[in-house]
Amino acid sequence: MPRATKYIFVTGGVLSGLGKGITAASIANLLKARGLRVNLQKCDPYLNVDAGTLNPREHGECFVTRDGAETDLDLGHYERFIDEELTSASSLMNGRVFLRVIEDERAGKYQGEDVQIVPHLTAAIQKFIQDAGAGFDVHIVEIGGTVGDIESQSFIEAIRELGMRVGLENCLYVHVVYLPYLGASKETKTKPAQNAVRDLRGLGISPNILVGRSEEPTNPGAKAKLSLFSGVAEEAIALLPNAPSIYQVPLTLEETGIANVICKQLGLTTKQPDLSDWARMVNHALGKHKHQITVGVVAKYLDNQDTYMSVFEALRAGAWANDADIAIEWIDAESIEKAEDVASVLKGIDGIVVPGGFGTRGLEGKIAAAQYALEHKVPYLGICLGLQMGVIAAARNAGVTGATTEELSPKSKHLVISTMAGQAGKENTGGTMRLGDYPCKIQAGSSVAKLYGTTAIIERHRHRYECNNEYRDQYESWGIRPAGLSPDGNLVEIIEATNHPFFVASQFHPEFKSRPNRAHPMFRGFIASLLQK
Question: Is 112 exposed, middle or buried (0-12, 13-18, 19+ CB in 10 A)?
């Protein structure tokens, strides 16, 4: 008989953005290294049903699972840290829970009861959590936001109740708190963390594990003081100052002994962990490399790095695989539109990446960047929207005046990119896109086939527009060719330039399947092309 699932709930205090996702992913990494079957889940307090309609400039990238769920970017961290492909069950937003409860109420499932936050909404949350954790030894649940947020209260109450239901011996609570450092007195302050623990206890949860995040290494007595005033044993407190790489965090946590404390508290019998491969990857990533390259990412969401998190991590992995240090420069697509000379904006760039995106803003700048890459033989990697801009650039360079996308100019004569056949809805809202895993057949003998080492692949998608097949027979005259198609041959999945050192673009998002210790072929090949110039 399989043993009952153990639960680890990760909450945050003091302020948001502390790294709860990295903490949860790191704990999962260490438990998996001990031979346990581990799953992760992110519970977000937003009233959106999924992350597909969240503003990327504020919330970061929208990560897509293999079954097509649009999720928080932390699922990307989860997948990269445990090297597992997660599903929609690993992402839960408040709007999805409310929708389930309202649908059940309309269907009469509550049989006339007054529907309330407690017990009905909290019970629904618990069912989502337990369903996601079924069949695993340990299910790690990260609660988004900060303890004390109004919108998070239903999740906090739900995990408190769940702990009582499954038994406190079968679950534990990890609280991630902030330890500010005062430069004037050269002192780490624990008072905000003490208050954060008090806030959590006020909601009925006593943390078993405390993770103290700080920007600088803490003073020697910080852990003892934190233990004294929080009631958490010193052995159950991990202090995590900023690390040069997020992938170093599991190794740092292992050194603190926290994983052993967790296993002991949950009564888990495990094998000795083997972190040698992970340690080699981290040492290589942080070491000196033979080459130095600069990649320009032509983007439109420039507010914070999180908007292209998976792309940046995939580029770094591709660089490490090629023994290279990489500098990533953000290039505002709108600045290219305004520039009299595109070369002046792209000066010093070894290669160009055009990532995904939606909306008309900055599209002409991305097209101009792709045109420049084609004309000047600059290595180019296009992702989703980057493929569409690449096709338009090739058409315009070949003399197809007015070539464009339906997204930018729906009434134009030459819509080389258009809405998918049979698709209902063109507006940028959820549920109208091609999402998740789809197979692709790569053209034998193409440069892309050499990158993958196979002609049959499965990749994740998130897009609304496709290459217009009415123009496909003109591709050769434009200097490009379809290097990958859907199995039925109807949809263009990959293009490549026919006379270019590296001009490759995919309709899918290869960054979602990249791993820090196993670079994705598209990114590995792109970086390799920069070293051959």
Answer: exposed
**Beta pairing class for 91-93 and 38-44:** parallel
β-pairing verdict for 380-383 and 503-506: parallel
Q: Which amino acid is at 460?
A: R
In order of their start, the domains of the chain are: 6-280 (3.40.50.300), 289-530 (3.40.50.880)
Measuring CA to CA, which residue among 411, 365, 413, 410 is closest to residue 385?
365
- Enumerate the active-site residues: 384, 509, 511
Strand partners, 331: 298
CA distance linking residue 385 with residue 495, whole number of Å:
12
- The tens digit of pLDDT for each residue in 365-411 reads 999 999 999 999 999 999 999 999 999 999 999 999 999 999 889 88
Tokens representing 92 are 């839960």
Q: How far apart, in whole angstroms, are the C-alpha atoms of residue 196 and residue 9? A: 16
* Model-wide pTM > 0.85: yes
Residue 510 has pLDDT above 90, yes or no: yes
Token pair for 56: 């990327």
**Per-residue pLDDT reduced to its tens digit, 341-356:** 999 999 999 999 999 9
